[in-house]
Amino acid sequence: MENKERLKKCPLCKSGHFLNFREAIDYSVSKEKFMLCRCTACQLIFTNPRPNLESISQYYQSENYISHQNKANNLTNILYKLVRNITLRHKLNWINEFAIEKGNLLDYGCGTGHFLKKAKQNGWKVIGVEPNPTARKITKSKKIKVHSEINKIKKEFKFKAITLFHVLEHIHELRKIGKKIVSLLEDKGYLFIAVPNINSKDSIIYGDKWAGLDVPRHLYHFTPETMEIFAQEMDLIIIDKKPMKFDSYYVSLLSEKYLDPNSSAIKQFIKGFFNGYSSNRYAKGHQFNYSSILFILKKK
Fold first, then answer.
1. pTM over 0.90
2. Helices (H), the chain
3. How far is CA 142 from the centre of its chain?
4. Which end of the chain is more exposed for a tag (fewer CB within 10 A), N or C?
């Protein structure tokens, strides 16, 4: 336990009242078990105890952690990369839909810089933040400025758009870093946050084997309701939401591997595809509960 920290307060609302929710296994790297707790006040689900900031990096030491690598070494990752070009266009279109006048763009947790490269080609002035040195080196090779931490960006520097694509759930200091990010936003700027949704149908189907849990790398497990509370805590408002429909297929494919690792790749693909499709259909009539959701926020 020397490398783990036990939270005494909810990392979102600071309530001291929370209960054990379920155990989850790190299927990707360590095979360790982790406990998930749920706050009785705001309903946020979070990993507790969790690896501390100094020890969390060891849980990212996997060639399968696709956002830090340029390799495509299995069927799921190959499909991920094929779909990535489509999703990059979607992301850019969503940003341009709201931030009509291009300016400075910050991608927090930029990985290997694919989105920043796309945005730069589209006329944005881009900067990235990426703590992983391997991913940061790849981003720099694309002639993109990238910092290891957000505190290295001068507070006077403001952004028209700040993006966090599947990053918020990884941030140890949720409130502190959240407020730092908001402070870098222009008064009429936009914040784009994509997170997995633990209320999605694929989460319900796979339970503790849902790949969206991704413990301990995912420290928090959001819903549309807890994202509303996050917005309130950061003095922001959510002005729109977008479904990230490809994520249900990708997460379901990974979850099938955890559920039945000995079955054939074809069987896993068919079942994963069906459950991904089923999840997207379910979301339309159930409070927008897609597997992953992009939230568009701005200052009040």
1. yes
2. 75-98, 114-121, 133-140, 174-183, 201-206, 224-233, 246-259, 265-284
3. 23
4. N
